[in-house]
């Protein structure tokens, strides 16, 4: 299997004589790019058949077949796609059908807000120049930020802005101030092209204000995003339950925005029986006749999962496929034994296994608690480090988090996800809050609060 990647794509699936190749192409110039890709492929492979798979349909396949609920409402949303930006599907047995395509693009708006904040992008000079450029005194004005936005998106790592903004939002305080235009701004579909890059002056003033103002802007953007998404999903659940002769088992979030663990947790608590039973953050859960039983997000909800979707569009899996460790193996695996011998490496099991590891992380015999890198088997398929390529450290206090962030060249505010033994979940969260792919973020029981749990 081979795959390419770019944002906002349709997926092109090439079936060759021996194997299946999947690749993607840009939606904006769909036909031209498809053609270009096809031409470069046929130089190397003899292709029997080409298939074009819609972007969100592909996300939906990955989300639904990853767990195989008997039936589900599948919500796929992200900043771009040849078939929309916020779609819903109903999965029943082995089939899925699209039931809605909403004119919402919260992913694009969310990204755009992240681009305005220098602690997110690291582009301080650009931010200063941008803020000096406009007269933001007049509230009635909408400023055209397209050029700035495009510039930021080129200079910073485009695909990481949203994830950083999510962590950054936790640094903001609820100042009680709202920005009147924000709800409307976040809700506006980016398909209304004439308003694509326009941002209300009042929002820009917050983005160009001091750090407190920037951080609280991040916080209210996340709040607005939560409300928009949960509101849309609620009305989808209502409409779908009215028109279906059976009740749905699950709710699946997929697409790049399904990496937003804050929104995911809210959806879990608000819309599912399992979540409603443990909800601490949401006062009002949906009435039980509208709720589904369970919630799921696949290990690779964003575009990194699309290649597998190409395969599943041709043959859906007969049983649950564990995708999360299907990434690349070690490039130099054949040299492993020799290097281990050279470094006089000793097996962990020989030293005492997990108990030894715990003592090591706790700093036994050392002046400083170590950070231990783990590499085992094939790497993760999807963006989360789930123990095959992870850094282990003792989660106590913020010092270790700061060291981890320095080590990874990450911003100071970025959280790390603590790993918690199954048998301790209840003590830490008050219920068995499973999150095998880091897709939700349960609040901790107060006195167990870990200083660097996801915000
Ligand atoms: C998927 O999300 C991760 C985390 O935000 C990001 O690093 C990665 O580039 C994304 N991949 C694609 C193909 O969008
Ligand atoms: C610390 O030293 C003791 C005694 O040498 C040894 O048994 C133990 O395994 C060491 N612990 C670690 C984590 O190195």
From TrEMBL:
Gene3D superfamilies: 3.30.420.40, Carbamoyltransferase, C-terminal domain. Residues 1-22 form the signal peptide. InterPro entries: Carbam_trans_C, Carbam_trans_C_sf, NodU/CmcH_Carbamoyltrnsfr. Keywords: Signal. It comes from the Eukaryota. Residues 369-448 form the Carbamoyltransferase C-terminal domain. It holds the Pfam family Carbam_trans_C. This is Nodulation protein U. The gene is nodU.
């Amino acid at each position: 299997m081979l795959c390419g990647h770019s944002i906002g794509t349709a997926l092109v699936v090439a079936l060759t004589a021996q194997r299946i190749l999947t690749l993607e192409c840009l939606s904006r110039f769909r036909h031209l790019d498809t053609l270009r890709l096809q031409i470069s492929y046929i130089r190397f492979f003899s292709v029997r058949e080409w298939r074009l798979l819609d972007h969100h349909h592909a996300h939906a396949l990955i989300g639904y077949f990853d767990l195989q609920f008997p039936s589900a409402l599948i919500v796929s949303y992200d900043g771009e796609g040849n078939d929309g930006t916020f779609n819903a599907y109903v999965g029943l047995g082995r089939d899925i059908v699209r039931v809605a395509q909403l004119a919402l693009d919260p992913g694009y708006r969310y990204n755009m807000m992240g681009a305005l904040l220098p602690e997110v992008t690291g582009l301080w000079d650009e931010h200063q120049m941008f803020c000096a450029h406009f007269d933001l005194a007049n509230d009635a004005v909408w400023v055209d930020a397209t050029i700035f936005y495009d510039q930021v998106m080129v200079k910073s790592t485009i695909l990481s802005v949203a994830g950083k903004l999510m962590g950054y939002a936790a640094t903001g305080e609820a100042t009680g101030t709202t920005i009147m235009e924000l709800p409307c701004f976040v809700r506006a579909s980016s398909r209304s092209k004439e308003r694509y890059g326009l941002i209300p002056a009042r929002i820009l003033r917050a983005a160009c204000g001091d750090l407190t103002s920037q951080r609280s802007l991040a916080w209210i953007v996340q709040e607005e995003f939560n409300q928009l998404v949960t509101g849309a999903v609620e009305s989808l659940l209502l409409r779908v339950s009215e028109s279906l002769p059976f009740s749905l088992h699950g709710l699946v979030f997929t697409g790049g925005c399904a990496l937003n663990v804050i929104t995911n947790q809210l959806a879990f608590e608000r819309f599912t029986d399992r979540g409603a039973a443990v909800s601490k953050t949401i006062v009002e859960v949906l009435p039980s006749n509208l709720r589904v039983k369970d919630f799921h997000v696949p290990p690779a909800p964003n575009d990194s999962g699309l290649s597998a979707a190409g395969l599943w569009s041709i043959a859906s899996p007969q049983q649950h496929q564990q995708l999360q460790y299907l990434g690349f193996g070690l490039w130099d695996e054949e040299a492993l034994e020799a290097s281990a011998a050279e470094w006089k490496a000793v097996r962990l099991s020989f030293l005492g296994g997990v108990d030894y590891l715990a003592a090591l992380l706790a700093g036994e015999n050392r002046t400083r608690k170590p950070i231990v890198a783990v590499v085992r088997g094939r790497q993760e398929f999807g963006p989360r480090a789930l123990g095959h390529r992870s850094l282990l450290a003792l989660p106590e206090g913020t010092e270790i988090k700061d060291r981890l962030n320095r080590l990874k060249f990450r911003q100071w505010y970025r959280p790390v996800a603590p790993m918690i033994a199954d048998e301790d979940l209840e003590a830490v969260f008050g219920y068995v809050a499973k999150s095998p792919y880091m897709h939700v973020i349960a609040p901790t029981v107060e006195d167990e609060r870990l200083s660097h749990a996801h915000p």
